[in-house]
Amino acid sequence: MILGDRAVSNLRVQETLVVGKQLVVPKIQAEELVVTSGNSAQFKAAVIDDLTIVNKILLPTVGGTASPLTFYQELAGTVEIKSASFGANQTVAMHIARIGKVVTMTLEGFVTAGSGFGATFFAFEAIPTQFRPVLTYEIPIEVVDNGVPCVGFFNLSTAGSITMYRGVVAVNVLGQNTFSGTGDTGFTTLTASWIAA
After folding, report:
1. 84 and 59, same structural domain?
2. Per residue in 172-196, pLDDT tens?
3. Residue 13 lies in a domain
4. Cα separation, 183 vs 177, whole angstroms
């Protein structure tokens, strides 16, 4: 089928649509989109304003069986960080996105005056269920204790709760120790990525 340069109000393709140069479509609704290395779907350039796929997307893979890409979500908001090691609770920006099973989160850091009490940090609320990790996730981060940047520890549980620890004070390595609460206290902005449950 050759359409040339003309507007088509309703185009229904039963099996295969091969586009040589460019396909501009204001809206597409499909039950299933399968992209393979053959001719079942070839798009050299496609501009799509609104694409709704009801069932699944299968992308090509090498050395295995493709898993359906069935989830995408972005969330921007705030999370409240609490600790006895500083005075008022701190509200920080949180940006989180999930593509398939891969989740990436950026958490805004802060530094505030310490309260004089030693304690860990923790988030007031758990992250939403759909973003929670399949296993407890732990990484080293940079924290500030008594005004000095040092090694800390970020822990995200399978229940979605976030806890931050100060590293071992004597040797400045990872370990679940409390912040001193003296001087400036906080953590630097961090980005973490994990596999969702």
Report:
1. no
2. 455 568 888 889 999 999 999 999 9
3. no
4. 17
Kindly report whether the global pTM for this prediction surpasses the value 0.70: yes
Considering the domain architecture, whether residues 108 and 25 belong to the same structural domain is answered as: no
**Per-position DSSP letters for 101-153, written without gaps between them:** TEEEEEE--EEEEB-S--B-EEESSPPPGGG-BSS-EEEEEEEEETTEEEEEE
Range(s) of the domain holding residue 81: 73-195
Residue 174 in domain? yes
Secondary structure (3-state) at 14: coil
Long-range CB pairs of 172-179 (<8 Å, 24+ gap) are: 174/140, 176/120, 178/85, 178/118, 178/119, 178/120, 179/83, 179/85, 179/114, 179/118, 179/119, 179/120, 179/121, 179/143, 179/145
Asked whether 75 and 128 are in contact (CB, 8 A), the reply is: yes
Number of domains in the chain: 2
pLDDT of residue 103 exceeding 90, the answer is: yes
- Both 119 and 176 in one domain: the answer is yes
Please check whether residues 45 and 87 belong to one and the same domain: no
Token pair 């759909």 is found at: 130
Of 40, 37, 7, the C-alpha closest to 24 is 7
Whether residue 80 is found in the same domain as residue 107: yes
Residue 66 vs residues 46, 74, 99: alpha-carbon distances, Å:
23, 23, 15
